[in-house]
Amino acid sequence: MLEISTSILTVEKDNATKTFYDLEVAGTDYYHIDVMDGKFVERNTEKMMYEYTNIIKQISNLPLDIHLMVENVKENIDRYLPLNPSIITFHYEICKSDEEVIDYINYIKENNIKPAISIKPATNIDKIKKFLPMLHMVLIMTVEPGKGGQKLIPEALKKAKELKQYLEKNNLDTYIEVDGGVNKDTIDMVKDAGVDIAVAGSSIISADDFKEVISELK
Hints:
By secondary structure, the protein is of the alpha/beta class. It has one domain (3-217): Aldolase class I (TIM Barrel), CATH 3.20.20. It has helices at 16-26, 46-59, 73-80, 98-110, 154-169, 187-192, 202-205, 210-217, and strands at residues 3-7, 30-36, 64-69, 87-91, 114-119, 137-141, 175-179, 197-200. Strand 4, helix 4 and strand 5 (114-119) form a beta-alpha-beta unit. The chain starts with a strand and ends with a helix.
C-alpha cells in the first residue's frame, strides 16, 4: 500500500500540537519536515521546522521524514540527529561532486539514519543511478521545491516510473517518494508511477477531516 508522509509546512503555530496529534490519529505514516534555508530555496523555515519537530518528538513515535532544502547539509544533519529521524534527505543539486554525495550518504548511515537523495523536476535520474545501491530512498520533486500548494508536474512522474523500472531490473530495493501537488485528483497518477511514499501537505492540512483525506489517498 502507498504510504503517506504529511508535510507540516502549512500547519498554523497556534494549533500545531493538536494538528500533529490529529495527524497521527488520522493514520499518516510519516511527518514530512521541509527544512528550507532561504538560499537553496526562497523560503526560510529552519526555525519553525526545528520547533515543530521538537513538539512532535514529545507527543509521537511516528517516523520523521526530514527533507533538507539547504546549502549547509552537514550542519542541518547534525542539528536533527539528536531527534532520531527515520530518514534524512538532501538535494543532489547542492553537491559539487560525487564524492560529496557519497560523504553525506555515509555520514547519515553512520548515525543509523536512512539516507535519501532528492532531485528537482529538471534533474535527470541518470545523475543519481550510481548512488542507488547506497540509498534507502529517492525523493523526486513533482513541483519546484520551496513553496507549498503548487500543481503537480506530470513529466516528473515519468521519472518515477522510469526509476521504478530501473530498480526492478537491477534488483534494488530503494524506495521512491514524490513530493508536490499530491491530492485526490493526482494520486492515481502517483500510484501508477510505482511510487512507495507520497508527500501530501496542503490537501491534508486544509481538510476538515484528516483521516478521510489520508484514507482516500492511500
